């Protein structure tokens, strides 16, 4: 009987398909490439894979611009390849979570094309958010709102008769028109999509921009000066972020998920105020929500302690398990962030992103980068995370200690946030460079052709081949930790052990202990057997920027 709670303490490995493994040498990773690497995933000891979008797409936003929600991008394979990949993962005991992108389709989606060809006020336009422009000839956008990637959140269309026409809302790129979730047809179509993939054996869903679906577009629209910042408001009053009605949608999804055995799971990507996160994570809703607090924190004992304590208590309160994450396809890799001065880590440029956004949209070169420090701290932080109750989300390449590729040539960049900010923000391509599998060779074993984002010369030294079997490598550290995690995993509880200010020490039920030294001086470890440590012990003591487990 399948365990309905498998997700609660799962280690979930995010695959960004275009950059994982390329089976046909066209420079883009693909589904067959993933299937070929199932033995590797198995050797890593993860419980589930989360697959970023693999749907037909022009890749205006790395696949988060979906042309067809119920198919596979021909550049990545076919539905048969998908089934073969899912079967191979399942045979290896690995669950499959797919990304679902409900806030917007792509502008190539059949619905949007239909809307462009249809007249103003038609049912086809009602699936999106079309409005007349302001000013006598409607030449000004309906409001002054900015898109997340920069520039206006509105784009003007040309009407079928060739005249300048209405405007449509796109909170992200212009190639990502926002869907109208007040429209029952949109809701029903997504239920169909969720059923389509669930029937194909998908075990769960990662829900993109889960907090933006429902919108209050009542006229007159407020100006941006009147809007609060994403994640700041507590009352659901923002016209598009985190409105209360969004939970009606997820209640319907939950009903559908619960018709499966085991119930399908879901995790919300919701940039909301911490006090409102539980609504997304409730068992009547999506069930789990990303908590990005550790990702946004410095490598600092006090910050980590406060974040862990708060999130565990909130998760318990709302009947879910906590989630932890340091890296994903939207942020500067944590091996690099932690090599930057404190407070400057998240945006990769040494400046503090106060608004929770700056980290997302940049990633330039940084003169102050101390890569060895970054590596050491990333290993320590990841080992700490893997000892926490709840689920750990890992991003492909972090198990190799892979740093950000900060100095990609501008000509090779793909991220819309780079283009829409006129190159001032470097964008997210630096964490999306195809993985190095071998020390040498064409695209370091990624495939027989090139790599769609250029890999730097130093990539080979971080490859799987370079680290495989080397007990001091980051890869072997992750393998050992994930294997121990399976054996030691217990109830979702943690008890803090009083310790020095720069040290975090906790015990899990069954006696599994984790100690992290955030300070500069080595510290003594408690009695017991050290089963894994992120750096070699120095005279039996735990060195600076290190974690050890005792069992
Ligand atoms: C995804 C991004 C994407 C955006 C728009 C985010 O939350 O993680 O990669 O650009 O949604 O779909």
Oligomeric category? single chain
> Which range does the strand content fall in?
5-15%
Strand tally is: 16
| Largest sheet: number of strands, sense, barrel closure | 8 strands, parallel
Please sum up the structure shown.
The protein has 14 helices and 16 strands.
Give an account of the 3D structure.
The chain has helices spanning about 30-35, 40-45, 80-90, 110-115, 185-200, 245-255, 275-280, 295, 300-315, 335, 370-385, 415-420, 465, 475-490, and strands spanning about 10-15, 50, 95-100, 130, 155-160, 165-170, 205, 265-270, 285-290, 325, 390-395, 495, 505-510, 510-515, 530-535, 545-550. The protein is an alpha/beta fold. The strands form three sheets. Strands 9-8-7-3-2-1-11-10 form an eight-stranded parallel sheet. The chain has a five-stranded antiparallel sheet with strand order 12-13-14-16-15. β13 and β14 form a beta hairpin. α5 runs parallel beside α6. The longest helix is centred in the middle third of the chain and has 17 residues, at about 300-315. Residues about 345-365 have low confidence and may be disordered. The structure holds beta-D-glucopyranose (BGC).
